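Form P-L/3: holo structure prediction, ligand FE2/S2 (inorganic) cluster.
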Amino acid sequence: MSIFTRAQRLSPGWLLLPLRVFLGVTFTFAGVQKLANPAFFRASNPGSIQAQLNAFAPRSPLHVILGIAAHQPILTGLVIALGELAVGIGTLLGLYSRLAAIGGLSISTLLFLSVSFHTNPYYTGSDIVFMFAWIPFVIIGSGGVLTMHNFLAARGHGEMNPSIAGVDFTTIRHACGNYDHGSCRAMDAAPCSMVKCPVINREVSVDDSNRASAIRKSSRYNSERRSFIVRAGGLGIAGGAALSVGGAGAILGRAIGASNSSANASDALASSTLSTQKPPSNPAPTSTTTTTSVTATSDSTSTPTTVVSSGVANPKGTVVGPASAVPLGKVASFVDPKSGQPAYVLHPKETDFVAFSAICPHAGCTVQYSVGNIFVCPCHGSQFDATNGDVIQGPAITGLTRIPIVEGTNGQLYADG
Ligand code: FES
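OUTPUT (holo model):
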């Protein structure tokens, strides 16, 4: 037999509980994931908040706001991560549920207008779904179901304001010291009557009036105090939970990041422009071109741009960094001088360099280089072959844009020539 009545089970709060848990867990995880990822705050990384803001700004209706935010990337990243964490924990615990839902709706709307605004078809973007998922909680909050707020309020009520229970007159007579077999000693043995009972129907004197007023004041004071304690307790629990979860995630993530970076000490930057990424587990050759003097091409149907040397010290294009910053088998990120967008250059073979825009053609997120020699889009999961930029897995339907890249005889890499 269920411990809940049918009416309880069909109440909006219970019906929406699975969705509430999903949203709470997702936002908490998203906040922790950002705090735990050192690369998110490192401007040189293509997946950093700064790179993403720069990538989204030109195509977003919020381009002015994103442009301003890109000048304060650390602050923006922290606000987003902590905002997601607060929304997630508030939703899970049922603390300030409506406020948390308004926060969730705002963040989702912001992400929709910046990250998934150009997603096509529109329903493959998750942010628009999150936007609508928050709306029921903006309207009803948590519905009073499994909330820390109710728990704290009940505790405060039990401790500070004992509940009033109805007592029938027979019980009062038996408990009353003046009751004497149907007569009331306090009324000179007059018949005992609820209407004339001196205990429960005394005329209100001035003293009584003052006392009643004092009791009302005390009751109001207790109520306000209780409310304050509930709010303060709620804030304390939410803050403590956010700090614990966020702090633990950040420490763990940074510890892992630190060990990775020491493991990849050989990837040390050789340039302030290029920054190397983790090498592929199985780097594959990207081209059969063997020429040592090839002019870069932007023809996307041709073999990926592969060059050892242009044969001249200063070939066409813009220097993006020394070729030595991309050791054999490594990947480095750089900012494409032509578009100002993040890009990758790979060095899969002794004689080859290839470069791709890091902007996902699906909706403009910044792809990440990953094991298996692929680029993965964190937004909707598209995957691209790092050898040629082709789509391995949608929803993207076109590959990454190739960027012509040339190594000059001076050892520098020239892009967009
Ligand atoms: Fe949607 Fe990349 S932006 S898969």
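COMMENT: The pocket of FE2/S2 (inorganic) cluster is lined by residues 360, 362-365, 377, 379-382, 395-396 (CB under 6 Å).
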